[in-house]
């Protein structure tokens, strides 16, 4: 099996050191967040890949606490936006105000909004108006914002974690396809298991509250993200990613279910996201290279929000998970 080689010397030692520190980070996060190991892993994979994440879950599953804890452990500044229909773009990006100095001269001063942070949580993002949702589009893709015609660079690293409530849809605005494609991964947050919920119940109703400690600094995270991109990848993994993504596009070579039911297919950014996420998952697990199993495991979170079904699929009870499972067969 041929591999895409890396030019980084001593990469094996760097990978071992990074995996050890990431294990410490997971332990710190797990001391505060109970029963969401899979969700935490995928959030860390997204951050290591340099991307943004969309969390889907009902209220009360510790999504906000999860963001605060991950930010603290990774050494990142964080901010939170509660999205509502009357939220304006300036409430996120910031605005210019007219000031007068001691000499009586007037000038504009830019006041930064909450987007000027390293880890931004947009709570219930689908409650914001389309105009406000689009204000995040440039920030997520270009890591900068433009206010009054002037560009402003965002802090680095910069990550957005947005949440959605899958139950209550009244008064919401579904995210457009272009915005959804900016999220590297969509993660479904489920209820914790019995043992984890018992542990959480006892821990959160006492006077003793665990607090996670910082394991990384922002510069360390940037080094990890560079290490992910330097990780060698086997040709079999590259072929599996390309095969999977192209199977999701109706046409020659696609499964019958895709040809019959898929209305919107994943683009090249899906393959790029899979490549980075597979590397990051291998690093998190302490492996020196990703495998095809990583591709299969991450197919759902990375492809689900980049695909849409037609009305016939909904009428016949066909789900995206059914389609994606069919796409991963034989990889």
From TrEMBL:
Residue ranges of domain ChlI/MoxR AAA lid in the record: 258-319
ATPase AAA-3 domain segment(s): 52-185
Organism of this sequence: Micavibrio aeruginosavorus (strain ARL-13)
Family of this protein: Belongs to the MoxR family.
UniProt GO molecular function: ATP binding; ATP hydrolysis activity
PANTHER family xref list: MAGNESIUM-CHELATASE SUBUNIT CHLD (PTHR42759:SF1), MOXR FAMILY PROTEIN (PTHR42759)
Superkingdom field: Bacteria
Key words of the record: ATP-binding, Nucleotide-binding
Protein name, UniProt field: ATPase associated with various cellular activities family protein
């Amino acid at each position: 099996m041929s591999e895409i080689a890396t030019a980084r010397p001593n990469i094996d030692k760097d990978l071992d050191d990074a995996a050890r520190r990431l294990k410490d980070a997971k332990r710190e996060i797990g001391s505060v967040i109970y029963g969401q190991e899979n969700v935490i892993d995928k959030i860390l994979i997204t951050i290591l890949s340099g991307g943004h994440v969309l969390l889907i879950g009902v209220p009360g599953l510790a999504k906000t606490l999860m963001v605060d804890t991950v930010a603290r452990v990774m050494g990142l500044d964080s901010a939170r936006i509660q999205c509502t229909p009357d939220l304006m773009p300036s409430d996120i990006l910031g605005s210019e105000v007219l000031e007068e100095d001691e000499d009586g001269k007037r000038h504009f001063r830019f006041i930064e909004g909450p987007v000027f942070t390293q880890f931004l949580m947009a709570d219930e993002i689908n409650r914001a108006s389309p105009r406000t949702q689009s204000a995040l589009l440039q920030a997520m893709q270009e890591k900068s914002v433009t206010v009054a015609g002037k560009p402003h660079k965002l802090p680095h690293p910069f990550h957005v974690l947005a949440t959605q409530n899958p139950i209550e849809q009244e008064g919401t605005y579904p995210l457009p396809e272009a915005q959804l494609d900016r999220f590297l991964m969509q993660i479904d947050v489920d209820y914790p298991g019995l043992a984890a919920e018992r542990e959480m119940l006892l821990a959160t109703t006492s006077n003793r509250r665990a607090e996670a400690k910082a394991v990384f600094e922002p510069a360390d995270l940037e080094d990890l993200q560079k290490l992910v991109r330097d990780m060698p990848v086997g040709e079999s993994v590259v072929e599996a990613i390309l095969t999977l993504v192209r199977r999701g596009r109706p046409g020659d070579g696609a499964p019958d279910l895709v040809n019959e039911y898929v209305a919107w297919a994943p683009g090249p950014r899906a393959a790029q996201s899979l490549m980075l996420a597979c590397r990051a998952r291998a690093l998190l697990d302490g492996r020196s290279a990703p495998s095809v199993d990583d591709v299969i495991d991450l197919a759902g979170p990375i492809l689900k929000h980049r695909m849409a079904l037609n009305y016939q699929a909904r009428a016949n009870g066909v789900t995206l998970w059914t389609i994606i499972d069919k796409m991963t067969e034989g990889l």
